[in-house]
Amino acid sequence: MISWREQLREAILDYRYLLDRGYGSKASLDLVTGRYGLTREERLLLFRCIHPWSRAEEIRNKMGIKEPIILDGFNIGITLINAWDGEQLFLCDDGFVRDLSVGRKKGDSRLVSALLVAGELLISLGLDFSIILDSQISRSGEVAKGLREAGLSADVVGRADKEVIVRGGTSVTSDFVILLKSENVFNIISFLIDRSQIIRINEFANLDP
């Protein structure tokens, strides 16, 4: 659980400065972690949510919907489950909502239900979409079967991240690397959860963008 303290605020400022100056994320994280005594969760918060402003803006400028719609199944499903469970969710520099679970609920029995909720939203918008699941994750075949039985398109592939990118159209994910390499992106999570659940890092820590 992240609790806001002055050392974390300073770490965010320093980390963002280093990234904007072109320093690598690992070296920068190691530096600020050591200087401010960051916890594992605080370090993870910086890694997942604080980005060079130029790259964050690049992603923001891709916001929009163009078919085909490709949904990163485990990424979206797990984030939504974490929202249901009351986990902390953060609005990151690129405008996307992320948690700090690092996929620890990949085997959750609610994955099909979560993806059906996401699918219902896309259907309500009149969009055709496919859900991509990574074969390296256990139960991916079972999840895909459940989605297909509900009438949704679901594919199990060897590398979900690559597949989401190469299919073009619009990527529905919060994976930073996928977002950077995609033509168009859609922040579906922000439409599926209560806005009051989202911690806006810059506002909460009194940071100027």
UniProtKB/TrEMBL annotation:
Can you give the residue ranges of the DUF434 domain?
Answer: 7-62
* Domain DUF5616: from-to ranges: 67-189
- Tell me where on the tree of life, at the top rank, the source sits: Archaea
InterPro entries on file: DUF434 (IPR007368), DUF5616 (IPR041652)
Name of the molecule in the record:
DUF434 domain-containing protein
Which species is this record about? Metallosphaera hakonensis JCM 8857 = DSM 7519
